[in-house]
């Protein structure tokens, strides 16, 4: 088989979700060959057995890499490891807890890239599932150069919707400091090429109670948010780009306040909660405060705090 697309699926302890992900790949209707590179990082919940079952059933499609020992704990990044096996001209990504919903997803995106040689990546709209809730993520996107928008934190991409040219990876470094590696990857790809967007829902993002990008633990959540900001700042300095990234900072701190407010009843010490509020108030606008909190008394206290903090905020940028 000479695949045009390599689907990279990284999974770990996704026993309740991996089958839906695999079925989403297998249902794709294309006029070209594609391979499914399935990578299991020594799951302990039965995910490995499901992966083996599918690999045996579809040997012409699924190439399984199953580890006996967890590689993430050894510092090995799942996608970077998996994509090294890719034979296709194009790379598609979908983690084992997400899934595709459109059987023509691959074809639509490959057609776009084949018809637009100056574009190296194309992504789509998607739905989101968390618990019993499901909603469509509706974001107005534009095609073209999105490099600066990514640096500012103004452009969001659903990883499970992406297809890009594999040749672009030769100029991508693996930044070990970025916890959420997608941010690093998108920025480096956008430095090289235009991004396309198809405004159709082709996949579903599953919000789990505990994952790399989402956690019920507020300190862990804040660590992830902070790392995303630091990752953007790293590339701003690396490329020596003059970017006004106050919006990214404001979004980061507004998310901190949102987290603090939502989880303030969950065994958070008063001193730590106060620290978060003081930190968040430096960068959050009055409008965002009222939008997120909906409490006039609480918001009034934050506005007062914001007034006192704004001078130190401005001088520190």
Name the beta content range.
15-25%
Distance between the termini: 54 Å
Q: Provide the structure class.
A: alpha/beta
Number of strands: 9
Please give the share of residues in helix.
Answer: 40-55%
Tell me the series of helices and strands, N- to C-terminal. Answer: EHEHEHEEHEEHEHEHHHHH
Number of helices: 11
What value does the average pLDDT take? 80
> What's the Cα radius of gyration?
21 Å
Low-confidence stretches: 281-294, 306-317
Overall 3D geometry? globular
Assembly state (oligomeric): single chain
Major beta sheet, specifics?
A: 9 strands, mixed
Give the key terms.
41% helix; 9 strands; alpha/beta; nine-stranded mixed β-sheet; disordered C terminus; 317 residues; 11 helices
If you had to describe this structure to a student in words, what would you say it looks like?
The protein is α/β, with parallel strands linked by helices. The protein has helices spanning 18-26, 47-57, 78-82, 105-115, 147-152, 181-190, 218-238, 246-262, 270-281, 286-293, 296-315, and strands at residues 5-11, 34-40, 62-66, 90-93, 99-100, 119-130, 133-137, 163-165, 194-206. Strands 1, 2, 3, 4, 5, 6, 7, 8 and 9 form a nine-stranded mixed beta sheet that branches. The longest helix has 21 residues, at 218-238. The protein starts with a strand and ends with a helix.
